[in-house]
């Protein structure tokens, strides 16, 4: 799961009081032994980060040990996760803001700065943004299953810690221990998704984990608060290898309309494809007569009934590749018709869906299958991303993301 970001700068303060100080520029990294405490004591250090191997923790400790009042880090590849510097004033900016700070220092006889208490910044645009540390695809085990699955908030999360856990770089004001801290990482996105799963399960106790997963993925958002496509920290459009199906929308997932439930057989075929022996697979399966397909091809894995589609290799010379999906009606109405409202594909990649209409006329829980054909004869080499959107004419919009690697 990927993480999101809404802020790229954070300043920590020991109190609400303002602190004034002169500014001192450090052209290179703040590494141990690089600062003369006699020169920098009581000043605010501006450090241009030229070596990403020197962690922010080290920079902060070096400046703090030199008795400086605070530090501003200028980083051309801005690390977007706020840094928990404890009670020590720390701020991080990108090159645009950093160049203005440097210009001010170089053009002013006695440059100065004021450290103020932290403030809440609302309505940051764009948000969310894919964090630089977020998990990226394609998947390591196979590229025929799209990874990541989905994106969730994972930056600057207020996290609780159990008793006895010591945070290495943080104590509350007055050196008092704290049971809470601001944390960032995929490990912070995970509990958000887990909570969303529990939320959906509480409303639909009979849904399997696979159905819930599908509900979260096919209803995910692919736009930010500016109504534009999700972006990454490079301010470019984020691909499904960065956001998966998009950012979770738990309320929408309560009523996805359709679900793509991955069967036990699909999971077992995946194990066959990855080299597990048939005897070993039978030992963990209820089906003691399970037999691995004679040819466990990549095409077989691409047709595992997953809520996204991925094809690791599509040759321009081999003609169209067929991928099958089975949709289950999990809506409130047993009588409903879905049509393909749009097929979004990059120029040159031909994508066809058959049939383009699926009809459910029996009880809720019935299924209907369809096939998606991909022809990369005129497509650009490399990964091509897009989606197939099913619509019931009412409130259900079901988005099936695909990633196709054309060779």
UniProtKB/TrEMBL annotation:
Coiled-coil ranges per UniProt: none
Pfam families from the UniProt entry: fn3_6, Peptidase_S8
PROSITE patterns: SUBTILASE, SUBTILASE_SER
Keyword Protein transport attached: no
Keyword Hydrolase: yes
Residue ranges occupied by any Subtilisin-like protease fibronectin type-III domain in the UniProt entry: 304-404
Family to which the UniProt record says this protein belongs: Belongs to the peptidase S8 family.
Protein name (Swiss-Prot/TrEMBL): Peptidase S8/S53 domain-containing protein
